[in-house]
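S1.2 Input.
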Amino acid sequence: MAARKKRTEISCDVTIVGGGLAGLTAAIGLAQEGFEVAVVDMAPKGDLTAVSYDGRSSALAYASCQLFDALGIWQHMEPFAQPILEIRVSDGPSLLHLHFDNETLGDGPLGHMVENRHTRLALFKRLEEMEGIHLLAPEKVAGIERDAARTTVTLESGTTVHAPLLLGIDGRGSIVRKHAGMAVSKIEYQQHGIVCSVEHEFSHCGIAHERFLPSGPFAILPLTGNRSSLVWTEKSHLTDTIMGLSERAFESEVRRRIGDFLGEVKVIGGRWAYPLSLQYTQEYVADRLALVGDAAHGIHPISGQGLNLGIKDVAVLIEVLTDARRVGLDIGSTAVLENYGRWRTTDNASVYAITDIFNRLFSNDIGPVKLVRDLGMAAINEVTPLKNFFMSHARGTVGELPKLLRGERP
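S1.3 Output.
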């Protein structure tokens, strides 16, 4: 990896604003295909990999893990990855439920749970093995310019970065998106996701549990060892009270929601709370610019698909840009970028709709609605083709897959 230097100007093929999970993955994938890339991020590496920075873990679909393997990242992640062998979905105390089992499809686990911190560490390790990536961090963007031939990103340090293509992979508050004047549609759910990890007496057996409660879904997600990650959706007006509980009182609430099937449970590490919303742009591309990941779309964690959508964006974009360069096209041209936009907007729109409907359908305790959703889950559980479709969706193998999600080079 190219060492970071204080330079007045950098010229490369692609400038990426945002060095998060999706941004670093994109940089690695593009560099592996021979593109020279600059990555700009506000946070220093030490902050991003600190234990206190982010308590979240991600459910990586089988297809996303295929991509990480194809990019040489998985070897650094695998020791910290817990296979998801089953998913059990239940509606509060109802006896009707939905059960997914990886043995039904017979092609590996449904996915893996990996703590975000370990994914970041793996990405940085892979970066160190590579050439062609300029990591500019901590740096802040002072200005962005685009003309017919190139983009120019000026940093507060005075460094300028020139490239024919600019990627905004800088999260929900994307400054690249704001620069381009791309409108955002947003729905506030008036919910927060409370995140923490627990140790427990009994093995989770690689089973992910999602329970639908009146305040929202409560997920118990398996980590390596006898540990699990909790994603506890709660009404926003109650979040401050819950986050302000003493360690003993908070642990008591956690135990009450989990029950006793894991034996003794102890909260480990910190607790975090994140506001939940749905937001998305209608267009992913503009002149010499494309949005990727949360900069283009942020969804409710109810399906565990947020990061997987961003990873799929990355896979499609790498394939589109590699194909374009192979035949001598300008990678920042509108015609090339529109191929990426068309591929992703339709696919992502269906996920927005499904997660929004599911959250509204399951975040209430209205009798008739509860009956309909319980019967619906029971029906899916008994109709094998439909159940297999939902399992394939969880594995990320539905639809037109780019090569990286099949474990192949583009």
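S1.4 Remarks. The domain at 9-81+112-186+280-362 is CATH 3.50.50.60 (FAD/NAD(P)-binding domain).
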